[in-house]
Amino acid sequence: MRSYFLSGIAILATKGVSAQFVSPPTDLKTAKGYLDLPVRYKQVPEGICELTPGVKSYSGYVDIEQDQHSFFWFFEARNGNPKDAPLTVWINGGPGSSSMLGLFQENGPCRLDADGNPYSNPYAWNNVSNMIFIDQPTQTGFSYSKAISGYTTAAGSIVQLPNATCPDYAENCATYSAPIFADTANSTAAAAPAMWKTLQGFMGAFPQYSRKEFAFATESFGGHYGPIFNEYIKTQNEKIRHGELHGAHHIDLKTVLIGNGWYDPLIQYAAFYNFSLENTYDLKFFNDSIQTMMYQNMYGTGNCYDQTVNCYKNGIDDACAAADSFCYDTVEAVLDRYTGRDEYDIREFSTDANPDPFPPTFFEAYLNTPKVQQAIGAFVNFTGATTVGTAFAATGDDDREDGTIEALSKLVEQGVYVIMYFGDADYICNWIGGEVVAEKVNAPDYCNAGYVNITTSDDIVHGQVKQAGHFAFARIYESGHEVPFYQPVIALEMFERALQGRDIATGKHSVWRSGYKTVGSVKSTYREGNGTVQFEPVDASATYNTTTNQPNPVVNGTASGQEKKREVLFRPNRK
Ligand SMILES: *[C@@H]1O[C@H](CO)[C@@H](O)[C@H](O)[C@H]1NC(C)=O
Ligand SMILES: *[C@@H]1O[C@H](CO)[C@@H](O)[C@H](O)[C@H]1NC(C)=O
Ligand SMILES: *[C@@H]1O[C@H](CO)[C@@H](O)[C@H](O)[C@H]1NC(C)=O
Ligand SMILES: *[C@@H]1O[C@H](CO)[C@@H](O)[C@H](O)[C@H]1NC(C)=O
Ligand SMILES: *[C@@H]1O[C@H](CO)[C@@H](O)[C@H](O)[C@H]1NC(C)=O
Ligand SMILES: *[C@@H]1O[C@H](CO)[C@@H](O)[C@H](O)[C@H]1NC(C)=O
Ligand SMILES: *[C@@H]1O[C@H](CO)[C@@H](O)[C@H](O)[C@H]1NC(C)=O
Ligand SMILES: *[C@@H]1O[C@H](CO)[C@@H](O)[C@H](O)[C@H]1NC(C)=O
Ligand SMILES: *[C@@H]1O[C@H](CO)[C@@H](O)[C@H](O)[C@H]1NC(C)=O
Ligand SMILES: *[C@@H]1O[C@H](CO)[C@@H](O)[C@H](O)[C@H]1NC(C)=O
Prior knowledge:
This is Carboxypeptidase S1-like B. By secondary structure, the protein is an alpha+beta fold.
């Protein structure tokens, strides 16, 4: 099984009191979404994350089922009239990874400093679009089934308490979503309707922000979510067109962006081996015997490749789940085990004792303060509950291809602008595998395109793109898994070009012009070398510098700076 870490939450509150639990909000407004879906929401006060005066923000829940409450947090576009701006949804992966990661670590309106104070992110994606962040499927992040008082066992399972009093023996007392498997999804396909309903709810309650085109942006396990959810949206649109879905809203899907996606395990498990042999940071991870072992674990008879083929063929839950565990333990995790390097950014180390401090996790504590919980109308704590991950693990969804590549081909065929981008220092969903996936999408004329530099307003080359018409594959240099954190300038400009239907390389050409394609090299050959690679664990108090592409030097870094804010609640695999 994939590992989920629910680690060392600093217990700040005293035991035997009820202060550790969330007081249910009493000030939510109600509205009706499309399909008459109930929506409960509030306007988030200025200063909670969005600091730009006059830019409105709303958060709340779409009640998609009796016991499925889907959390959203919406931000108006900062520039221009938000009523004329496109609407973009952002979801993180996991499965079970909260979109609060994307919001606070990547492309949301704010970041948090070590003292828990928000500061504005000038490269927020709501500079150019209305943005909605959704926690899905239910029981991810702030989305909940039933809100219960509980605590967690050492193994991470949630135990319900009879009342909101934290007994002395209990660890991590908090308000949790009751871990009910029937009230979440256990596969990508099963999660699609819930996501669609959440959008129907929001769009009906906030029609003023849903007047223009719709874009879908996601990451990591979003390599599954993005293609499948959007094919579902397209199918629903067709049903609406044929008068089969009364009260539902046509979603005008124009753009799909997927960062460091996990699409096809057969390709991408193999890509761990290829990446370890040859990467552009001049890192040789293993000696020959480990390298041989990894190859054997991948391709030896009955090993990862064979097991995954078997999963693809027979689709049996147990076979897929077992294959995924095997591939994870014997292929993917070899890096962690023998090098201690961070799967999300190979330039740095990450171990239990010394986790990679980037991107910072200060937002987890912020989201667990009464002030912020009240401001956003949360019903549950922000915790590392693993219900969703466990549910998906049981079907082995991570080891399935799920039709993701075919769905992408279809989206392209249906006129959706599809952009796959990859931070090239990421290992877990690395660009070596991504490049092979992109070829398999087989977009018209893509095989005749070549790599060109991407130009941005800062005149620094942050990556290359290979594009034909409205399909693009971008490699981003000096970036770990979460591209908007490591490379905010190109992330925002790429996003804006995508929304405008312009080419990723320059932003000057319409991708709808017939015959547009990039003319360049067959391979993307730029090498960073080891200039930004760290050979010591980074001090936990360090800050990341997006100009030098490495940590700022720590002046007299001490252990005291370290302990302070390492409250890693949740570290799902494909976040
Ligand atoms: C984003 O929008 C804000 C508010 O208009 C502006 O201050 C900031 O400069 C913009 N950022 C970029 C990168 O253009
Ligand atoms: C809450 O539950 C505990 C058992 O965990 C019990 O001892 C206590 O009396 C209950 N408190 C209230 C106010 O019901
Ligand atoms: C890995 O490298 C081998 C040998 O060059 C190649 O045949 C294969 O397609 C590569 N696979 C991936 C996923 O990069
Ligand atoms: C290769 O590395 C492994 C793990 O670090 C070590 O146990 C083994 O002795 C090394 N083998 C050789 C031949 O150096
Ligand atoms: C849960 O939220 C409450 C209320 O804001 C807070 O006091 C408590 O520390 C939170 N619990 C955790 C584990 O973060
Ligand atoms: C997945 O969910 C479906 C629908 O709730 C259920 O029928 C099925 O048994 C679940 N699969 C596993 C492996 O738990
Ligand atoms: C592309 O960018 C690289 C730096 O990454 C530069 O050396 C090269 O000259 C650029 N190529 C073109 C055609 O501008
Ligand atoms: C970094 O790369 C250079 C050039 O490839 C090499 O000489 C040097 O040994 C490398 N440094 C480390 C610490 O591996
Ligand atoms: C990043 O590094 C550059 C070059 O060393 C320096 O001028 C700049 O102040 C640093 N930025 C931050 C935010 O520390
Ligand atoms: C850093 O440590 C050195 C040596 O202990 C000391 O002389 C210096 O004053 C310290 N600097 C700061 C900024 O604390």
